[in-house]
Amino acid sequence: MANLLIAQGGAPTAVINASLAGVILEAKVQGFKGKVLAARYGTKGLLKEDFIDLTNLSEKEIEALKYSPGSAIGTSRHPLEKEDYEKIVAILKKHEIRYLLFNGGNGTMDTLGKIYQHAQGYEIYTGGIPKTIDNDIAITDHAPGYASNARYMASIVNDCNQDIKGMPIHVSIIETMGRNTGWLAAASALARRKESDAPHLIYLPERPFNQQKFLKDVKNLFDKYGGVVVVASEGLKYADGTPIVEPMLTVGRAVYYGDVSSHLANLVLKELGIKARSEKPGIIGRCASALVSDIDREEAILMGRWATKTVLLEKNGYMAGIKRISNNPYQIEPILIPIQEVMLYERTLPDHFINAEGNGVTPAFEQWLRPLIGNLPEHINLLDREEEDETL
Question: What would the pLDDT profile of 227-251 be if each residue is shown by its tens digit?
């Protein structure tokens, strides 16, 4: 009997397990009679033939998956060699796995694409489910995982804005993930409702960092408002491509940068003599289940279901994707993208989403993102209220 296997790859998100729930639900809808298996810790478990049987999960367990962050079946960044792909095909045949789904980012899709190539001539049908907080997968309008982390970033900047306004003596530097793309840093812009609101400056890897201009902009804003919030991506580089903070460790494609936020805060302290603090949410942002976007969860489930339906119909070598139909009302439709078109292709923030100064975003970006993250709390601040004339 033919079986189905799903593996997760790369960093988890707050909704990656919602996609897993979608896979299991769609297999039931399609009347799939084989086993639904998961590779424990992704490709690492696949090579060890270490599988978790998901076939008989209860409705309660499947429902809980929709709301559980992290990877419920385990994920990894396990590097593969050429011979590993041949071994994987042999393992799939051994366990009668005809349908293979990989849930991950562009690196995971690269792995899946190579398995697809090595499995040519066999009855093995491969499908991809997009996942990434960085939103750097090609062609799809966006990827599940991004909207929830974007909502997290906009939410904490919205809150930080109130703190800084109430005690305007600091420059707060908030660092986001994103080695080469600024989608997450850019998302903080949705915290801003008026000119004086945070974020006051946003720095993206898509634009070279200019230290002197940064210090000048911070000083001008501090003199104007008395408190400044800066959002900076971890992957900031100078014009020559040199990271502004030397990476602490590089393992394959994974680059572990030093603390960009601490570096920038220290610059403000030393060069401007202004109190500055650094914040680095990091992993907390990608697993914050309390701030998950409802749209993100729904689309994560949809992508899991769409990819499962596709492979069970024996359409081979596609990643599920999202095509946006309209912003208002927000409408999308699922699409299929040939796996070769998303293998290790990194999509950066396009020019029309970045402002002319290179330290913020455009209204077009805000319009694109707004429906994905939902409404943020509307805080009140009385400091801007003008005193009313007393009447006798």
Answer: 999 999 999 999 999 999 987 776 6
